[in-house]
Amino acid sequence: MSTEQKLQTAEQLLAPWNKETIRPEENRLDVVIQPEALHEAASALHEAKWGYLSAITGMDMGVEAGQLEALYHFCNGPAITSLRVRLPRAGAVVPTIADIIPPATFFEREIKEMFGIKVDGLAVTDHLFLPEDWPPDVYPQRVDFTIEQAKAMEVSHADQMPEPGRVGENTFVVPIGPQHPALKEPGHFSFTVDGEIVTAAKMRLGYAHRGIEKATESRSWVENLYLFERVCGICSHTHAMAFSMGVEQLAKVEVPARAQAIRELVAGLERVHSHLLWLGVTAHEAGFDTLFMYSWRDRETVMNLLEQITGNRVNYSANVLGGVKCEIGDEQSKAIKEGLTYLETRIRHYLEVVTTDAMFLNRTRGIGTITAPEAERFGLLGPTARASGVARDVRIEAPYGAYVRYPVSLVTETNGDLEARCVVRLKELLVSCFAMRSILDNMPEGPLTARMPRKIPAGETVARVEAPRGELFYYIKSNGGEIPVRVHVRTPSLCNWVSVLEKAVGRQLADVPMLIAGMDPCFSCNDRVVTVEDSRTSENWSWKRLREYGIEYYSR
Amino acid sequence: MNNKPSLWKQTMNKVRTWARMNSIGAIHFNSGSCNGCDIEILATLTPRYDVERFGIKLHGSPRHADVLLVTGPVTRQARERLIRTYEQMPEPKFVISVGACSISGGVFDGCYNVGGSVDEVIPVDVFVPGCPPRPEAIIDGIIQLLGQLQGGAPRPVAKPKMTGEVSS
């Protein structure tokens, strides 16, 4: 089915509630609907299996307009249908759609917290990424919120930490983080355990929430490129690439083929570095430090290559608006090929290790299994989804940039457990290495950059990029000025958290670090909060009683 | 009565300094960084850079650590945790602030949820600039700290002056 046909199908599905149809771009359809009709319209798309809910973007149209907007983006291959809901600035209410599409919870809580759009029927009302002591009725993404206002705000540091060792009827709460040896990044989890078995999981993020989306609204297009690169230090290239792709679409600038090829090449190298990093961390969580050290040693090969091409090991700044700033000459090309040859042998070796090492398999095989229907329901993305057999990869579904010319093949597994996630990521690297070789062999000639205007024409666009962790979604709006009006970033880690929390329940506490590592979380990318189940009523237990209970539990 | 420590104390201090210099226990705290510095800190532990040859090892608990490596601008929510982690460390304790944003807020300066630099929250001994600093730079920072330790009590280094300030 072509993109046009898909959009027509969507339009027909949404016809009963359609108030106005806008076609902002060739592959996009905006349907304006009444807030009351949102639930029905979303379920019409969902039931017809028209794509998946990718993000919800909130927007403030300004104090004079007195209007807020919420955009529900559904992606189906390259086609994107957005349900546009217009709301009054005071007393904005939308119904929740999380009952039909569970991952919408995170997105809804985000618009609630950032824009003050009340979501009717939302189960969890805790803060998502703002601190607990953030004053009520202050919404940082609204246009009338200023940084000065935030500076003047008193921080009382009153946010609550669960008391360590608080116990319910038969349970014990184990708090983990934000500073914890198993977590290299800040996040707080509390797992309620019954003996060794986890009975409830709760999570609080937001320790790395910096407020980047707001900051973009006061910086120029070029400054923002470097800001977005620092959303995440691990996948910095994909963030910068998504942002520049969006801005280039708005400016209607054609990026030279050579620049696109180099972008894909750097993205490929970044994927190798990110997945090898992940492999090491996962091995470390499993207590397999030898594999951690080996994979990080081999990762230095790719760090060298990135440094040779771009001049920096992390935050490479390979992109500029309209192209790239680094050239791949014969010398670099030769070095990359040599590096790839070495890496390919090593990756094949690791593939053998993760599928044959008995000790490692004990920690991965059959653990955290997510079936394909579950993965669809949770809205998982990237390698976590592909390990469950869900074919979700933007590079294949909606090829962008050089992926049209140098396609990659889809890697999926069916088991959906931690072993499958290891295998998917490693096989994906072999595919990436193959793609990089074909780029190097057929590098198009031409300039590296196209000329970009200083002011970007008014309009709005969506850029989707497959980051190492899954689909990265950028929504960019310009009003023709030197700074963007709104940039919304939805990162893949946000969609994958459910896999940890749902799957931790019923497993041993010792499996939890592996489950967390299994989805390759990126805290600085997402930083939000989720609760799956709450612990039961609390009462205090003495250590003695707890110990006795433990003995009793195991002698059963 | 003179204030000079007894010979026994002097000797013990020497032994303590020697022991501390050869077995630094470090912990890492991310106070809102982009992960760039964090992966470079991890890289210093792995075979290429291998800080264990200086006796430096990453510990799990702040109670086992001598050195706190802080990355990132201090976000509102991480601030309290950073202070708590610092307070849990036994004396004497040292802080290395890694990365441009932990020194000045860096690229995140002016974001609403960012409080500012690490040295506004806890005392810092060594600043390692860079976005992110290379592992060599991080090792150099640690070695500078070791140098300070050798010379007796560590002195907090003045915060580097920002030259050629970028207009906002």
Mean of residue pLDDT values of chain A: 84
Helix content of chain A: 40-55%
Number of domains of chain A: 3
Number of beta strands of chain A = 16
Determine and state the CATH class of chain B. Answer: Alpha Beta
Mean pLDDT of chain B: 82
Oligomer: heterodimer
* Chains forming the largest contact: A-B, 51 and 45 residues
Radius of gyration of chain B: 17 Å
* Coarse structural class of chain A: alpha+beta
- How much is the radius of gyration of chain A in Å? 24 Å
What spatial form of chain B do the alpha-carbon principal axes imply?
globular
**What portion of residues of chain B belong to β-strands?**
15-25%
What would CATH call the class of the largest domain in chain A?
Mainly Alpha
Largest sheet of chain A: 5 strands, mixed
Q: What is the domain total for the residues of chain B?
A: 1
Q: Ranges of chain B with pLDDT <50 over ≥5 residues?
A: 160-168
Strand content of chain A: 15-25%
CATH fold name of chain B = Rossmann fold
Low-confidence stretches of chain A: 527-540
The number of distinct β-strands of chain B equals 7
Please explain how this structure is put together.
- The complex is a heterodimer of chains A (556) and B (168).
- Chain A is built from 18 helices and 16 strands.
- Chain A is of the alpha+beta class and 556 residues long.
- Chain A folds into three domains: 150 residues, NADH:ubiquinone oxidoreductase Nqo5 subunit (Beta Polymerase, domain 2, 2-Layer Sandwich), CATH 3.30.460; 81 residues, no CATH class; 279 residues, Cytochrome-c3 Hydrogenase, chain B.
- In chain A, the strands form five sheets. A five-stranded mixed beta sheet of chain A has the order 1-2-5-4-3. A four-stranded antiparallel beta sheet of chain A has the order 8-9-10-16, covered by helices on one side. In chain A, strands 13-14-15 form a three-stranded antiparallel beta sheet.
- In chain A, α9 packs antiparallel against α10, α10 packs antiparallel against α15 and α16 runs antiparallel to α17.
- Chain B has 168 residues and is of the alpha/beta class.
- Chain B is 36% helix and 15% strand.
- Chain B has a five-stranded parallel beta sheet with strand order 2-1-3-5-7, sandwiched between helices.
- The termini of chain B are far apart.
- At the A-B interface, α5 and α9 of A face β1, α2 and α3 of B.
